[in-house]
Amino acid sequence: MIRYQLRCGAGHEFEGWFPGSAAFERQAAAGLLSCPHCASPDVTRALMAPAVHTGMPARQAEAAAVTPAMPAPTPPGHAPQAMPDTMLALLQKIRDTVEAECEDVGDRFAEEALGMHHGEREARGIYGSMTQEEHAELDEAGVEVHAIPWVRRADS
User: Fold this and answer.
1) Alpha-carbon 134 to chain mean position
2) Is residue 64 pLDDT above 60, yes or no?
């Protein structure tokens, strides 16, 4: 997954997640993107600094040592209570896009992600589940992954 900083015609900035740059271009051309603040369909990529992984600096290592453990993931199909409607709609749109554009590798997620990171597997968009231990292994190997709240489908 690629994280882009996006900007609408009104100047609002927000993040967008895509399996690759071609997916962003397809969705933008089809008018599937909109600003979460004002619903403007005029969405472009904003300038952003590249993420360069050069190892963990001492300051980050110290911060990581005192960072509390990740909270338990939200079970599939469930979202936290009292979620604003706009956020729920955006998360449902993210889920639809991930399911349409990426491969569900289930509990093999960590294995597949590590294989792609090492060039042993074809790079592609994937989603699935992993344990906290597997997440720590991926983090240690320098594989950047992100958890997305898996809300119920919009049509359910």
Assistant:
1) 17
2) no
